[in-house]
Amino acid sequence: MLSNFIEIFLVISPVFILIILGNLLRRIGVPDLSFWHVSDKLIYWVLIPALLFHHVSQITLSSTMLANYAVVILSGLFVVTTLSFIAGKLFGYTPQIWTSVMQGAARHNAFIALAIAGSLFGNKGLALGAIFMVILIPVINIVIVSAMTSTLNQEVGNNSRPSIFDVLFELIKNPFILAIATGLVISFVGAERIIIIHETTGLLGSAALPIMLLSIGANIKIREISSAITPIIIASVLKLLVFPIVVFFVAKSMNLSLFETTIAVIFAAVPTAASSYSLAKQFGAETQLMTSIITIQVALSFITIPIILAFLAT
Length: 314
Description:
Elements: H1 2-28, H2 33-56, H3 63-90, H4 95-106, H5 110-151, H6 164-173, H7 175-189, H8 195-218, H9 229-253, H10 258-269, H11 276-283, H12 287-313
C-alpha cells in the first residue's frame, strides 16, 4: 500500500506542483495579474474544448458503456447531495451555508481530474475523462441550481437570480459540452480521422493542461479562508472520501474494468470546482465559506487522491 502510494504520488505530483507554482506566480506578480483573467478565457473557450474534441472524437464508445458510466458516477453524486442536505438540516444551517456545503460535496474540478487521468493513462485516460465530464456537467448544474433557486430568495445587485431555464440555456452554449457532443457524433458515426482538424486540436490541447493547472493555483485565495470549520469538514469528507468510495463500490458491482473504475474514482475524488464561488456569489450564498472549501479541498486532495488510488492498485 505504501509503495503504491509513493509511486502514484510521484506520477501525479507534477499536477499539484503546477497548481502551487500558479499560486506563487500570482503572488509575486509574474506574469501581470491581467494575464490570469485572459488565460481563463483562453482555457475556457479554446484550449479545453480543443482537448476534449481531439480525444473524444477518436474513441469507440457504445450507448451501453455510456449508460454504465452514468449510473456509476451519478450514484455517488446522488449520495453526497442527499447527505449534504441531511447535514444541513441536522446542524440547522441557513440555506446560504448548506448550499455552499452541497456545492463543496457535489461539484468537481474536472480540470484536475483530466490532468491526473492524463498523467496516469495518457490519451486514453483523457478520452474517458471527457466522457465523465459530459455526464457530470449538465446533471450537477441542474441539481445544484435547482436547489439554490428553490432555497435562496435573495436578489443580487439589480439582476434577479438565474432560473433553471437560464442554466439550461447556458449549458447548451457551454463550449465543453459542444466540444464533447461534436466529438461524440464523429466517434459514433465512425468518421475518418480528419488530419488538419485533429492535428490542430491536438496542438491546442497539449497546451491546455499546464496553463489550466497554473490558472487553478493562481485563483486560490489562501487569506480568505474562513473559521467555519464544521461546514468545511462536512463538505470535504463528503467530496474527498464518501463520493469516491460510493463510486468505487458501484463500479465494482457493475463489473467495470480497473481502468474505467480508476477514471470514475478520480473524477469523484477531486476537489470541488473553482466555479462554485461564482455560483455562490450569483445566488447570494456564503462566498467566504465557499472560498475556504475550495482552497482546503485542493490542499487535502494532494494526499487523499494518491491514498485512494493506491488503495485501488492493491
